[in-house]
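Continuing from the previous page of notes. For each protein in this section, the sequence appears first, followed by its structure tokens. Read the first protein now.
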Amino acid sequence: MAQEHAARFFKAVLQDEALQAKLKATTEPETFIQIASERGYKFTIAELDAQISKLTPEEMAAVINPGISPRRRLMPR
């Protein structure tokens, strides 16, 4: 169920530019999870990781900070 929440959250994010900008500004997975939770999507960091691994590079860049600039990456390389 929570895995489905993560998948639905990513679909919602791809359609909301303001939410994309907010998520790209996050540097901690916990903050990402909190933003999702505030919108009714409940999932863990492990479920977030699993869903991120399913994203294309383009989808990932639209949702999270790809690490360009001095900001920390949500997903370390």
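Done with the first. The second protein uses the same format. Note its length before scrolling.
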Amino acid sequence: MRVPGWVEREEREPVSFGATLVLPDGRSVPVVIRDISANGCCVECDETLPIAETVRLDLGGDSIEAEIRWALTGAAGLHLTNPKAQSGWFPRPS
């Protein structure tokens, strides 16, 4: 059940696979993607990420630009910034 006042969002699909975030300062941060939607994902990592920064999500063979929409210690929500990439952007686990 959604809490009153929360913004509607796309359905999430639970997943668990590794990726790397490349921050604006060039640092790479390993993450685990925990859920995905057509417009973004939730990631877990060992540091608090900078909210409202644009990052690159490196998926191994591909990478995609995203904005960090929210962040807590250990987790963050990313919103894809490239509309062309919002369809089938994530690799499907085998």
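What the second structure shows: The mean pLDDT is 85. The first strand starts at residue 13 and ends at 22. We return to this in next week's lecture.
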